[in-house]
Amino acid sequence: MFQKISSYVSTLVLVLALAACAAPGQQPGQMEIRAGVVEQIINTELSSDHHSGIGAVVGGLAGLGVGSLIGAGTGRDVAMVLGAVGGAVAGHEVQKKYDKPIPAQQVIVRVGSGVLVSVTQPVNPGISKGQRVYIEGSGEDARVVPR
């Protein structure tokens, strides 16, 4: 008896899970677009898209490679360690030069339903307060573009 009920419950859970997966949603290639009016624009910055630490890793590997070409035996081991440390420090310093924030703007848009939507994106000089715009996409991929 318990096994029969367990089987029915398992089947019901499977059917519900499959039904939830089959529910219509946004398909690949589709983009949500909402219309609205710009209420406010706030200047801000976005962090760069460089991965921190990559400069140190690449520099360390390059220094290790150069150090391996020097000497033999224990001297070679010391040269590899010094090359790796020196390369990592140099790579980190080089990365800091290119790892600067990107100028951006936080655009607050009032959509047709009256809801305020905030989108932070790279600066778009074609957008101004009071302008009618579209919000393309959603989440972190959302962008505000002029109508």
Automatic annotation (TrEMBL):
Keywords: Signal. Residues 54-95 form the Glycine zipper 2TM domain. Residues 1-22 form the signal peptide. The keyword Signal applies. Pfam families: Rick_17kDa_Anti. GO terms for cellular component: outer membrane. This is Surface antigen. It comes from Candidatus Accumulibacter appositus.
